[in-house]
C-alpha cells in the first residue's frame, strides 16, 4: 500500500482589517435544490441576483473548508517547486490549450520594468474522453486521486445545479445546459491552482495597482473558492469597482462570455479585475483555487431556443444558425486571442474577439459597464 508523501502545512494569511467598500452580492443556498419548490425559489433568486451584476455567492454545496485547504496545500507545494519541475507540462497556447502550467513570462509594459508574477496550473477533468490530455507531473502523481475527486465534486455539487437553474431561468428544459456539460463529456473545463506574487508599492504604482486589468471570463461560469487576501473587484457601474469580500464557506460564482453569447446578451458577463491587496495584506502571496466551466467540445455556441429570449425579441427561430460553431472552436480561439500576448498593456484598448462573424468588444476600460453588452 503506497503512502502519500506529507506536505508542509498550509494556513491562510490573516484577514484584512481595512475598511473596504464591499459589493453586496446575493447568496444562493444550493441545499434548497432538492427540496420541494426549491428549484423555483432558487431560479427567482438567481434572476434577481444577475439583474445588476453577474456575481453571486453560493452556499449549501457540501464541500467542506478542510477539502479546500487541502487543495490549497497541494497548490502551495507545487508552486514552491523548482521551475524545471513546473515546466514539465506547459500550457500550449499556440493551439489554444489552457491545460498545464502557465509561467509568468509577460511584462506590463514594453520596456519590461514590471514583470507579471502570476502563475497558474490548470488541471483537465479526469475522465476517459480526456485521457490523452492528463497532466503527468511526477511531483503531483501521489495527489492525483485527491485532485481528480475534488474536481468532480465541484462540478457535480456546484456547476451542475447552477447550469440547471440557468436553463430553467431561460425557460429551457432543466438539463439543456447541464447534460451536454456533464463531467464525463469532452470540454476544456479545468480546476485551477493560481498564485499572485507580491509587487512592491513602486511596481504596483507603475501598473495602476492593477495586477489583472478589467476583463470577463471565457466560458459559462467561473467558481472561485474563498480567498482571504482581498484583491478581487467587480465593476458595479461605469467607472466604479467594489471589493468582493472573503466569507468562509461562501463560493463566488460569476457568469462568463459563453453564457452571455448563447443568451444573446440577456445574461451579462460582468467585468472584474484584480488589484493590489490592502496595505495589511500587500506582502502576502495570494493563493487561489478556481473551477472554470467551458462550453463542451460539441456544444453549439449560438443563441439557445429560449421562449424567454423569443418573447424579449432576442431569439428568432426563423433566423437560427443551421451550422453553429462548437465549444471547442470557441474556447481554443478565445485562448489564442488573449494568451499569445507578451506584453500586458493596461492603458490600451484590447482588440475585439471576432468569432463566427460576430465582433465581441473586449475593451474593459474603467468606463466600460460590461463586456458583451452589445454583440455586433
TrEMBL record:
<feature type="domain" description="Non-haem dioxygenase N-terminal">
    <location>
        <begin position="28"/>
        <end position="133"/>
    </location>
</feature>
<dbReference type="InterPro" id="IPR027443">
    <property type="entry name" value="IPNS-like_sf"/>
</dbReference>
<protein>
    <recommendedName>
        <fullName>Fe2OG dioxygenase domain-containing protein</fullName>
    </recommendedName>
</protein>
<dbReference type="InterPro" id="IPR050231">
    <property type="entry name" value="Iron_ascorbate_oxido_reductase"/>
</dbReference>
<dbReference type="InterPro" id="IPR044861">
    <property type="entry name" value="IPNS-like_FE2OG_OXY"/>
</dbReference>
<feature type="domain" description="Isopenicillin N synthase-like Fe(2+) 2OG dioxygenase">
    <location>
        <begin position="192"/>
        <end position="279"/>
    </location>
</feature>
<dbReference type="Pfam" id="PF14226">
    <property type="entry name" value="DIOX_N"/>
</dbReference>
<dbReference type="Pfam" id="PF03171">
    <property type="entry name" value="2OG-FeII_Oxy"/>
</dbReference>
<dbReference type="InterPro" id="IPR026992">
    <property type="entry name" value="DIOX_N"/>
</dbReference>
Amino acid at each position: 500500500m503506497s503512502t502519500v508523501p506529507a506536505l508542509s502545512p498550509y494556513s491562510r494569511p490573516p484577514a484584512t482589517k481595512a475598511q473596504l467598500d464591499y459589493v453586496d452580492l446575493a447568496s444562493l443556498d444550493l441545499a434548497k435544490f432538492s427540496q420541494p419548490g426549491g428549484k423555483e425559489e432558487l431560479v427567482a433568486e438567481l434572476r434577481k441576483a444577475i439583474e445588476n451584476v453577474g456575481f453571486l455567492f453560493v452556499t449549501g454545496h457540501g464541500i467542506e473548508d478542510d477539502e479546500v485547504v487541502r487543495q490549497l496545500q497541494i497548490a502551495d507545494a507545487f508552486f514552491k517547486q523548482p521551475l524545471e519541475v513546473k515546466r514539465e507540462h506547459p500550457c500550449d497556447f499556440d493551439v489554444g490549450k489552457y491545460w498545464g502550467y502557465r509561467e509568468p513570462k509577460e511584462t506590463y509594459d514594453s520596456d519590461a520594468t514590471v514583470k507579471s508574477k502570476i502563475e497558474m496550473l490548470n488541471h483537465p477533468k479526469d475522465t476517459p474522453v480526456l485521457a490523452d490530455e492528463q497532466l503527468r507531473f511526477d511531483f503531483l502523481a501521489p495527489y492525483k486521486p485527491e485532485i481528480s475527486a475534488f474536481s468532480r465534486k465541484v462540478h457535480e455539487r456546484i456547476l451542475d445545479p447552477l447550469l440547471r437553474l440557468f436553463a430553467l431561468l431561460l425557460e429551457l428544459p432543466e438539463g439543456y445546459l447541464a447534460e451536454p456539460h456533464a463531467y464525463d463529456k469532452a470540454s476544456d473545463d479545468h480546476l485551477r491552482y493560481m498564485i499572485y506574487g507580491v509587487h512592491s508599492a513602486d511596481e504596483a504604482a507603475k501598473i495602476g495597482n492593477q495586477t489583472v486589468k478589467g476583463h470577463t471570463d471565457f466560458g459559462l461560469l467561473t467558481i472561485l473558492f474563498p480567498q482571504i487576501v482581498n484583491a478581487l473587484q467587480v465593476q458595479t457601474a461605469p467607472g466604479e469597482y467594489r471589493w468582493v469580500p472573503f466569507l468562509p464557506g461562501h463560493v463566488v460564482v460569476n457568469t462568463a462570455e459563453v453564457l452571455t453569447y448563447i443568451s444573446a446578451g440577456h445574461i451579462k458577463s460582468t467585468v472584474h479585475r484584480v488589484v493590489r491587496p490592502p496595505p495589511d495584506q500587500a506582502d502576502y502571496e495570494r493563493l487561489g483555487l478556481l473551477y472554470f466551466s467551458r462550453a463542451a467540445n460539441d456544444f453549439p455556441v449560438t443563441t439557445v431556443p429560449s421562449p424567454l429570449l423569443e418573447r424579449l425579441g432576442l431569439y428568432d427561430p426563423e433566423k437560427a444558425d443551421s451550422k453553429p460553431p462548437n465549444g471547442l472552436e470557441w474556447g481554443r480561439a478565445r485562448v489564442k486571442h488573449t494568451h499569445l500576448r507578451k506584453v500586458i498593456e493596461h492603458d490600451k484598448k484590447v482588440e475585439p474577439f471576432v468569432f463566427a462573424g460576430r465582433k465581441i468588444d473586449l475593451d474593459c476600460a474603467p468606463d466600460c459597464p460590461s463586456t458583451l453588452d452589445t454583440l455586433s
